[in-house]
TrEMBL record:
SMART domains: Iso_dh. One of its GO terms (cellular component) is cytosol. It comes from the Bacteria. Its cofactor is Mg(2+); Mn(2+). Residues 4-346 form the Isopropylmalate dehydrogenase-like domain. It comes from Pricia antarctica. Belongs to the isocitrate and isopropylmalate dehydrogenases family. LeuB type 1 subfamily. GO terms for molecular function: 3-isopropylmalate dehydrogenase activity; metal ion binding. Homodimer. This is 3-isopropylmalate dehydrogenase.
Length: 372
């Protein structure tokens, strides 16, 4: 297979972790006889330095013309320390999602047996965690009209959703649930918000077409508590943009590191794959950033194009790095291995078959049944 892949390293540790993903893809090319064509482009703070825009027109054009996008991270300290800046690096990512209509963020959260002690939560609480969050990505309060009074004392953010926006991601989530454990949890705030009431009405109606899937509705505050008390009760979580942002952060607590969480952002015509973590500018250039989330996101990209064996080979190599404790310091607390070494180790262990680390059952965790 031949694919054109846009590489958007972005800021901070983004280029470093993305470089490890590219190493893995080159190993997949060689092992499985594929051809991937890579094109790099700036986004975020680094793009603002050269073009004045967090998402340059040429970068957007490249993304539109590519089969897939691999994204690093976005954000810089000079903007973090200046919350009043009118143009911010993060706006580049929001615009990219909106322009490409990447309406569904798919985020699997699963504990790895070999890393179970990495979590701050008790093992008995998290041991069987295996869920996936479907977060609506292009609507809601993040994209609604924003106002502030002339004297700066009154502000508002509009949370607006249409039935069509809710419906398209709801169908994806229900289809995923059908192929998993047949349970979908809608997270909203329908006791207070009119937009949440529309979510609940729409999703409940759609649920009638998926009679074999159990639909549960939870308020966001209760859902957050339940994720910390008993995360294994969840299978597929469906929610809006802001609530999905909140619950995804809890996922990093469950597994013990945001450096282990991959993400797929998909639409009808485009797809982007990125690690969950931010740009972590304090670690830039120190060779300590965890590349696993970026590499697992790359495995999700392979599955998106039906390359299940190839994705499994990447996942198996990652699992082997866990078993052999070839990980960065954030995972085990102390480690002699850096970003480059971990990336090289995983790359060298990508093979077409490995009886000791064959993880076919991981396909569902990676999102095989959800990415289209």
């Amino acid at each position: 297979m031949q694919l054109k892949i846009a590489l958007l390293g972005g800021d901070g540790i983004g280029p470093e972790v993305l470089a490890q993903s590219v190493k893995c893809l080159k190993a997949v090319e060689e092992t499985f006889n594929h051809r991937f064509i890579y094109h790099e482009a700036p986004v975020g703070a680094i793009a603002m330095t050269s073009t004045g825009k967090p998402l340059p027109d040429e970068t957007l054009k490249l993304c539109r013309e590519s089969d897939a996008i691999l994204f690093g991270a976005i954000g810089a300290l000079e903007y973090d320390n200046n919350p009043e800046a009118k143009i911010r690096p993060e706006q580049g990512l929001l615009k990219l999602r909106k322009e490409l209509e990447l309406f569904a963020s798919i985020r699997p959260i699963r504990t790895f047996p070999t890393l179970i002690h990495n979590s701050p939560l008790k093992e008995k609480i998290i041991v069987n965690t295996n869920l996936v969050i479907f977060r609506e990505l292009t609507g809601g309060i993040y994209f609604g009209k924003k106002t502030i009074s002339a004297d700066g004392t009154i502000a508002s953010d509009l949370c607006e959703y249409s039935e069509q926006e809710i419906s398209r991601i709801a169908h994806l989530a229900f289809k995923a649930a059908k192929k998993r454990r047949k349970k979908l949890t809608l997270v909203d705030k329908a006791n207070v918000l009119e937009s949440s009431r529309l979510w609940r009405k729409t999703v409940t109606e759609i649920g009638k077409s998926y009679s074999d899937v159990e639909l549960q509705c939870l308020f966001i505050d209760n859902a957050a508590v339940q994720m910390m008390l008993k995360p294994d009760q969840f299978d597929v979580i469906l929610t809006d943009n802001m609530f999905g942002d909140i619950l995804s952060d809890l996922g990093s607590v469950i597994i013990g590191s945001s450096g282990l969480l991959p993400t797929a952002s998909v639409g009808s015509d485009n797809a982007m794959f990125e690690p969950f973590h931010g740009s972590y500018p304090q670690a830039k250039g120190k060779n300590i950033a965890n590349p696993i989330a970026s590499i697992l996101s790359t495995a999700m990209m392979l599955q998106h194009f039906g390359m299940d064996e190839e994705a499994n080979a990447v996942m198996s190599a990652v699992h082997k790095s866990f078993v052999k404790k070839v990980v960065t310091p954030d995972v085990l607390g102390s480690s002699k291995y850096g970003t480059e070494y971990v990336g090289d180790y995983i790359t060298e262990n990508i093979v077409d078959s490995d009886e000791n680390f064959n993880l076919n059952e991981e396909n569902i965790w990676l999102g095989k049944s959800t990415i289209i």
